[in-house]
Amino acid sequence: MDGYSVSADDEEFLRRVRPPSWQNPQPQTLYDLIIVGGGPAGLAAAESARRQGRSVALIERDHLGGNSLNSGSIPSKAIIRAARVSAFIRDDAEFGTTESSRPLIDFADVMARMRRIRTRIAEYHSAERLSARGVDVFFSSARFEGPNTVRAGEAQLSFKKAIVATGARPQSSDIPGLEKIGYLTSDSIFGLAELPRRLGVIGGGPLGCELAQAFCRLGSRVTIVQNEPKFLPLEERDAAELLSMSMSRDGVETRLNTTVVGARMEGGEKLLDTANDDLKSSIAVDEVILSIGRAPNVEGLGLESAGIEFDAGRGIDVDNFLRTTNADVYAAGDVSSTHPFTNIAEASARLAVQNAFGVKMQRQSRLMIPWCTYCDPEIAHIGMHLREARRQSIPVKCFTVMMQDVDRAITDQQDDGFVKIYVREGTDSILGASIVASRASELINEMSVIMSAGIGMRELAGILHTYPAQSDAIRLAAVAYMNDQPVDQVPRD
Amino acid sequence: MHALCDLADDALLARLQRGAFNYLSEYCNQENGLVADTSRAGSPCSIAVVGFALSCYPIAVERGWMRRSEAAALTLKTLRFFAQSPQGDQADATGFKGFYYHFLDMRSGRRVWNCELSLVDSALLMAGILTAGCYFDGPAQEAEIRGLSDALYQRVDWRWARNGLETVSQGWKPECGFLHYGWEGYNEATILYILGIGSPTHSLHESSFGDWTLTYQWENLLGYDVLYSGPLFTHLFSHAWIDYRGIQDEFMREKHSDYFENSKSAIAIHREYGARNPRSYVGYDRNLWGITAGDGPAYREMQQNSRDRRSFGYMSRGVPFGPDDGTIAPWAMLATVPFGAAAALQGTRRLLEKYPQVCTEDRFSSGFNPTLETERGGWLSEGWYGLDQGLLVMMVENHRSGLIWDMTRNCPAIRAGLIGAGFSGGWL
Question: Which of B213, B305, B308 faces A249 most closely, judged by CB atoms?
């Protein structure tokens, strides 16, 4: 399929993230901090270091904004929003609309809107803005040439400290024939000009599920193939099962426990050959999305020259302070993290800057990290999982509130899902939470504040929420906790 | 209203228990003891149903429905079949490594439908085989029953079923080896672990049970503390054989509960869910509930009042996370009778009053969906399923006399399995 034609939005986007006429600055003799990579981690590190008054150079080989802005969080969420509107139109009869009043979604308009949004957001991270803040921005590949030197094109830069934040790229696959028939990844899907009539998605992780559901809602006939018994293997079983049901309701053909064992062209169409134990089958598709994880960008950086140890699959080795094996070099974001989320990349980058120049080092294990998969319903989590607590022999009890018992979720007809808060038994300490809800990405942030502030279930039960509100589910879980306490332990007014 | 509603509680229980048992004798191949999975024409045998049937013959003897010699003869035929049928890795064998394929041809006893060597269904079969060995304590053919019971149980290679991992796989096929999914979270597999650990020959490691319990979820759900599992049958199957009252493993000791109390909590949650009825299904009520594995309507495209009303075929339904398509299992409420007779009978009576069509020949159908409008007042599963009938006979008997529980308390394999899995206290 041909890509879309370049629009004014695209030109403006490029002007912001990779200005065509950009001249790399004259390098300073010695930088306090050099950042390799201009994605979310690199940008956050630059901002944090400049706020401390450090001299900073940032080297980006491609576009500023990284995967998040160019081909990840932002474009996918823009498309997911359109897909939600499409699903709402499909299911809106209960709200009084008629079949004839429902407009059709135009894929070209969906993609154009996505590009407008991306361009708008790019302004916050533009090269011009960075430069105005005193960051020397170099557009070129970067290569370490010694423990404290890095080459950026023609220039050799020296640093006191450096942060590697080169991110990750879509993992490739050795499925026989797949390269030959061609496939899309998160890097290329957002360049589609037409909606594929039949789409095969390989991989049931967060991105695979998000794209499968979104493209199905936009009108593609989607089959998703996952080689595990459930989607989102890192999430709670009930969350993954709710997602399966939701995707199935949308019309996504789900193939769990199934492996793609080959790909081929036959009769002018792409065929994915699958195996589910002894059951063999083929799926005919027009496009394939490969979404089986991400590979850290560690190649061609000369990491060996700087004494930085890494692994092609695992990424750069860092300690709990985000230090690499070179004491002057740190790593942040997807290049060294098992959790490829923008908020984690940014938080780890700020921590790396703090540890590079601060008096007191902070451990990354102390970060309280919420994350979310943006399917419908959304699936969000923070803190400890139930199984993790059990493995550590921590007595844990889960207080669950079903969204179908939350008044606002009922009135909104968004009552699929639940709030689960994991509490250390015998105390009111919150260990973690999982939320499946239409807007779990928002609700989980309340849990993030609660946990960061050290608020326990007793106090939470007394915190007023607006009524009706979907976030009231969180308070109701705390009320369930209070109701579960012996009467003489419940504080009297 | 169904004519059964006029009966007093004891008489009602007796009638329905007998009706359920009649399925097991009516759909049994008297030549080899295999029992059909369902009453539908051409149904194969389900080995789990045979396990239930073997456990129900002693009940039939004690209730006067079968002569002891007749029950012993049928039991012996069944055990001889399993001892003599082909074991091996060929695709049409009856079993492998002492386990058996889930579904067998009713006459030849060979594997059908390309089905899996089912570990949990084999465990249910073994539970029946051990029950027979406990009950038939006389000489002659009863001695042979005991010998075969021991031999069949000891032949099972439970250790192999781990596939080199800590916990047990769900199954195996000659075409592809072990199925690549295991057991996660609490469910009906307790009996599998207990029998596996109790084996004197090829036992599971005692720690395997603890490893499985690491996947448990202890939740406060709809106001009740529960070791969560959604489908109701998962809270009943192991209990058909084992009296969990007062005995605790490490997990339940930590929670100050036991598995019997836990099933009571699960039932309370099912009733509360029925009362809340979040999807506005027809019929659901605090006294009309029972969402579990069973047959279903399987309408893939369905809207009602603009809400998605897609339904499923035979599947495991659960509460409160779903799936729930408005289908209840009419037998399920009565099967909970040992955990609370009042709720079980109240619910069963209400069902019979409101929807008498769910019970014919004193037997409950597998699934009923009153939300789907049909000429019969809702979608009704055709015929009967053997698992439902076998479980019902045993649970009613455990309520009436405790016969099965009393027997298995002295079953060496079950005692060893429970102790190995870390259970203590109570009658143990």
Answer: B308
Among residues B184, B264, B203, which one has the least CA distance to residue A390? Answer: B184
Alpha-carbon gap: A423 to the closest alpha carbon of chain B (Å):
10
**Phi/psi at A7 (5° precision):** -110, 175
CA distance B154 to chain A (A): 29
Chain A residues at the B interface, defined by Cβ less than 8 Å, are: 91, 93-94, 229, 236-238, 241-242, 245, 249, 257, 275, 277-278, 386-387, 390-391, 395-400, 402, 404-405, 415, 418, 420, 425, 480-481, 483-484
C-beta of residue B352 within 8 angstroms of C-beta of residue B279? no
For B361-385, letters b (16+ CB in 10 Å) and e give ebbbbbbbbbbbeeeebbbbbebbb
Shortest distance between the Cα of A102 and any Cα of chain B, in A, equals 15
- For B254, which of A93, A395, A481 is closest by C-beta distance? A395
Fold equal for A8-170+295-366 and A377-489: no
Going from N- to C-terminal start, the domains of chain A cover: 8-170+295-366, 178-292, 377-489
Q: Which phi and psi (to 5°) does residue B302 adopt? A: -160, 130
Other beta carbons within 10 Å of A121: 18
Q: What is the pLDDT of residues B28-66, one digit of tens each?
A: 999 999 999 999 999 999 999 999 999 999 999 999 999
- Please give the Cα distance from B115 to B111 (Å, whole number): 7
Task: Look up the pTM and report it.
Answer: 0.93
pLDDT at residue B301 in the model = 63
Q: Which CATH architecture has domain A377-489?
A: 2-Layer Sandwich (3.30)
Contact B220 A397 (CB under 8 A): yes
Q: What is the DSSP secondary structure assignment for residue A61, as one 8-state letter?
A: S
Judged by CB atoms closer than 8 Å, whether chains meet at A387 and B215 is answered as: yes
Q: Which CATH number fits domain B3-420: 2.60.120.280, 2.40.10.120, 3.30.280.10, 1.50.10.140?
A: 1.50.10.140
Q: Quick check: B300 contacting A, CB < 8 Å? A: no
For the stretch B267-304, pLDDT in tens is 999 999 999 999 999 999 999 999 999 999 987 666 55
Cα separations in angstroms, B235 against A293, A426, B38 = 38, 26, 22
- Residues from chain B contacting residue A387 (CB–CB below 8 Å): 214-215
Three-class secondary structure of residue A149 per DSSP: strand
Candidate from B185, B218, B323 with C-beta closest to A245: B323
Q: Do A404 and B322 touch (CB under 8 A)?
A: no
Euclidean distance between the first and the last CA atom of chain B, given in angstroms as a whole number: 45
Q: What is the pLDDT of residue A2?
A: 44
Grouping H, G, I as helix, E, B as strand and the rest as coil, residue A215 is helix
Class of domain A8-170+295-366: alpha beta
> How far is Cα A38 from Cα A48, in angstroms, rounded to an integer?
14
What are B79-119's pLDDT values in tens digits?
999 999 999 999 999 999 999 999 999 999 999 999 999 99
Q: What is the distance of C-alpha A374 from the center of its chain?
A: 9
Nearest CA of chain A to the CA of B177: how many Å? 8
Q: Which residues of B touch A236 (CB under 8 A)?
A: 217
Q: Could you tell me the two tokens for A210?
A: 């998000």
Residue A304 pLDDT class (50, 70, 90 cuts): very high
Partner residue facing A398 (CB), from B217, B306, B323: B217
Q: Is B297 exposed, middle or buried (0-12, 13-18, 19+ CB in 10 A)?
A: buried
The ipTM assigned to this model is: 0.94
